Amino acid sequence: MRTEILRYLEKNSRVDLGELAVLLGTDEMTVANEIAEMEKEKIICGYHTLIDWDKTGEESVTALIEVRVTPQRDLGFDRIAERIYKFPEVTAVYLISGAYDFLIILEGKTLKEASRFVSEKLSPIEPVLSTATHFILKKYKDHGTILATQKKAERVLVMP
User: Fold this and answer.
1) What's a GO cellular component annotated to this UniProt protein (predicted)?
2) Which of 28, 124, 143, 149 could form a disulfide with 21 if both were Cys (CB 3.0 to 4.6 A apart)?
3) Residue 107 gets which letter from DSSP?
């Protein structure tokens, strides 16, 4: 039952517990208790609202930063990751495979602000060897939700 609850909550965190209970063939209290237990165990780590910031008129930029580092003896990548994820502008840090070690997602108000973070805060960290910054220019789909407006197919009237 846990997996079914998690899959449903991942797509719709505002679900009515009664509705979810009906879908799972159980009662609302059972679902509520399962969710509370998963929150306590940190299986459910938080709830988020997906916002299309382009439609709000707010100035913002999202940067994906690839970072190559020298792992620290006996600590591997964990200490470096902790140092990076403590910056408030960093929204995510992932250890990845490939040419780089970390993928960092950064939120800022402007391209200049995001670039300044990389040059003034990230690059000076001693184990950091190199970075590559990519800016998100437009989001078409995020967290499984299509953000791009879809045009309806237009049919042309053909006269015989």
Assistant:
1) cytosol
2) 28
3) E
Select from 124, 118, 119 the least CA-distant residue to 104.
Answer: 118
Residue 37 has pLDDT above 80, yes or no: yes
For residue 93, give the amino acid letter.
V
Catalogue the long-range contacts made by 114-118 (C-beta closer than 8 Å, 24 or more residues apart). Answer: 114/61, 114/63, 114/89, 117/87, 117/89, 118/63, 118/65
H or E segment at 31? helix 28-40
Q: How far apart are CA 77 and CA 102, in angstroms?
A: 9
Nearby residues of 115 by Cβ (< 8 Å), 6 or more positions away: 133
CA 107/CA 137 separation, integer angstroms: 13
What is the pLDDT at residue 42?
A: 93
In 65-158, which ranges are continuous DSSP H helix? 78-85, 111-117
Give the CA distances from residue 8 to residues 16, 38, 125, 141, in Å, rounded to whole numbers and listed in that order: 11, 14, 40, 19
Closest Cα partner for 38 from 73, 69, 14, 2? 2
